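Course assignment 3, question 2. Fill in each field.
Student: A.L.
Task: Predict the tertiary structure for the chain below.
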Amino acid sequence: MSLWAFCNYISLISNLLFWRIHMGVGVARKEVTRTDVTTLPIKATTVLTRQDLVDLVQGKFIALCITDYYPKWLCEQLCKRLLKLPEFARYLRAQNVGVQRTGMTFFETKGDPRLLEQYYAEAQRMRTTIRNTCFPYLSPIDKLRVELEEVWFAGARLENIHGQPMMVGIARMFEDSFELPPHQDVLARDIVDNSSDGLLLSQLSANIYLREAKFGGELEIWGIKPSYQEFLKLACDDLHFDQNKLPPSQVLYKPRAGDLVLFDSGRVHAVRPSKQGPRVSMSCFVGYRGQNMPLTYWS
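Answer field:
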């Protein structure tokens, strides 16, 4: 082999290694076991697959963690950009909880016609704002949207409850020393008019972590999925569970920048207080209506 050919060969190998390591493109890596997950069942892998999504909605494990889903170096770059957005504010329905999000979520509307109008009016603008903030890189949520469409046989699309495309992909920032108390996220409970969730069988929460707090901030998930009537018996207010009435949790996960974690949001879940953050992520919900139906996503 000539010196020129040898140098070209080395250059090609170096480029392939760069893209595989830094951008997550290329051959799927061997599955790994996370040692920082103290309670199971949680499945850790490196590639998002249809079978893992099916297993998740069928309850074969409580949470699915795709490690290094988004490049760590890019997580910090985007985190700095996103934190400059003026849209960050606490949830309208949870003003006492130190969690801020970019733009209104459907959960906050609770059927109020004025808030619904505001939500849909903001949806397209905020989707564009997030995309432009991440440009020229593919945003974490857009990456997830593309991969869901590719791995799911029936495809994936924006959720549409009132005949209008919904928001998808909020950035969330946890203020220091604040927790997100035990709760559930159930779309059907947020729809109070005659609209339907389209026979939703399962609702997944998808979280891509951009920055971890130095201390705390663990995601905690219980194995139970209480009905609304059961929630009322276990609640401490109109949104949250009294943790003293709950059994021990089954998953305790310390976020790492770049990881994607999915779980059934109908399961009781919480986020423990964090310090020396802020803890920052991007999130959305993924709706499942059967293996032959498209997935949907919204925030």
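Instructor remarks: Confidence is low (pLDDT under 50) at residues 1-39. Helices lie at 3-22, 50-57, 72-82, 113-134, 140-151, 187-190, 228-234.
Grade: pending
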